[in-house]
Each structure stands twice: as C-alpha cells, then as structure tokens.
Specification:
244 residues; alpha+beta; Helix Hairpins; Heat Shock Protein 90; 2 domains; five-stranded mixed beta sheet; two-stranded antiparallel sheet; 7 strands; 56% helix; binds adenosine-5'-diphosphate
C-alpha cells in the first residue's frame, strides 16, 4: 500500500515537473517570437511604404532608409543574443586553470575603449587569482555587467570593480552609482526578456537577455551571480566562483 502511495506521489511530481518545463519552454518561445515579430513588422511597414510610393522625396527616402537600417540592427541583435543564450546553455565545458586578474583587466580596458566617458577603478586583493573556468564565458559575463553599469547610470558611469577571495570563493564585484533597482524588481531581473523599464532598455539597445546569459554562465561554473541594489542608490553585481 505504502509502495503504491510512493509511486503515485512520484508520478504526480514527475508530471508536474514535466508540465513546468513545457510551460517555461512555451513562454520562452512566445517571448522570443514577440521580440522578433516587432522589428519584422516595422521592416515590413517601411518596405510597403517604399513599394507603394516609389516617387517619395529624397529626404523621406533617407529617413526611411535610416529606420530600416536601425530596425535591421535590432533584429540582428535579438537573433545574436538568442544564439548566445543557446550556445552558453549547451556549451561543453572548456574549463582550465586560469588567472582571473588579467581577464578582469582586459574587460575593464575594453569597456573604457567603447565608453571613454566612464570612470572605472579596479582593485584586486592579490596580484594573481587562479580559478578553474572558461575564460571566454567569464569574459562575456563580466562585459555584460560592465555594460549594464554604463547603460543604467545617468550621465558618465562611475564603476568600481574588485576581486576578492574568501575561504571557499572568488568574488568579482561590479559596483555602479546608477539608477538602482527596487527590491520588487530585483526578484525578476535574471528572468529571460525581463526589463524594469522596457522603453529605456530598448532605447539603449537592450533585449532583456544579458543577465540570463550571466546567470547561465555562472551556473555552468557551479557558481552564481548576486545582486544588491537600492532604487536611486546604484547596484552591486557579484560573480561568485568556487575557489580552485
Ligand atoms: P537589458 O538588455 O534590458 O539590459 P539585462 O538582462 O542585462 O537586459 O537586464 C535586465 C534588466 O535589469 C534591465 O532591463 C534593467 O532594468 C535591470 N538592470 C540590469 N543591470 C542593471 C544595473 N546595473 N542597474 C540598474 N538596473 C539594471
């Protein structure tokens, strides 16, 4: 009797887990198609205007051409981010023993080359911090956090990056003095396609996949990403890796 009961409970749990997985998959496809459909509708609309009004003025043609190019770029970005997310999820682990310090230095240099107005300080407790990781993936996670620190700051961003070690962990912290996030929103920001302010994110070229990519990368490393923030007071995102 107890055996049957266990089997029934196990079956129910299994079916509900399968359903949850199916629902998550459906939601992802629905969100992804929405993100793709919006720029495609815009492209179609402008292409139809050109088809129906072959004699429009040069000024109008220039304006439409500009919109076609920026919309095509957005479409390209959505597809690229979706591909990255899938690649990261399915990436076979290419981990090796590497020094974290030059990776963080290189990412910081890259950020300053694309956002020369940003103020960035970098501090490491030790000159060398060995980790067992995939350098390319860590680089991607850190660049995502650094770019967000710039995107979600009013005016030139002020960013403090630090590398710390505890008994069992290595922690890379990216602290900004930007717009911050409320505790209500903080619960959702790692969900795929979630954006606190869709309009702002979209204007800055955001799609809402950056933090999902960071989370997936850290999970691949048996690590995690943490966030502390307060609305209007800036944010601190921390990549946490198990110590080698
Ligand atoms: P997006 O492409 O919109 O930047 P992300 O997944 O990287 O997507 O981030 C999700 C949301 O989390 C953003 O839309 C933004 O609202 C919020 N966010 C991320 N990083 C920061 C930050 N450093 N400061 C304030 N808000 C942030």
């Amino acid at each position: 009797m107890i055996g049957y009961l266990f089997a029934a409970v196990f079956c129910l749990l299994y079916l509900s887990a399968r359903k949850k997985l199916r629902d998550t998959g459906k939601e992802f496809v629905a969100n992804a198609s929405h993100e793709l459909r919006t720029p495609m509708t815009v492209l179609k609309g402008f292409a139809e205007i050109l088809q129906e009004h072959p004699n429009i003025s040069g000024v109008q043609l220039k304006e439409i051409a500009g919109k076609l190019v920026s919309t095509a770029h957005r479409l390209e970005k959505v597809v690229k981010s979706l591909t990255i997310l899938t690649d990261v999820e399915w990436a076979s682990k290419q981990f090796q023993s590497i020094d974290l310090v030059p990776i963080v230095e290189e990412c910081s240099r890259f950020l300053l080359s694309v956002c020369p107005d940003a103020q960035l300080s970098l501090r490491s407790e030790a000159p060398s911090v060995p980790v067992f990781a995939d350098a390319g993936l860590l680089d991607m996670a850190l660049i995502n956090l650094l770019e967000n620190a710039v995107k979600y700051s009013e005016g030139p961003a002020s960013i403090a990056v630090s590398i710390e070690q505890t008994a069992g962990e290595v922690r890379v912290q990216v602290k900004d003095a930007g717009i911050g996030i409320s505790s209500e929103e903080m619960r959702h920001i790692f969900e795929r396609f979630y954006r606190v302010d869709k309009g702002r994110s979209r204007k800055l070229g955001g799609i809402g996949l950056g933090l999902s990519i960071v989370k997936t990368i850290m999970e691949k490393h048996q690590g995690r990403v943490e966030v502390q923030s307060e609305l209007g007071q800036g944010s601190v995102f921390t990549l946490v890796l198990p110590k080698k």
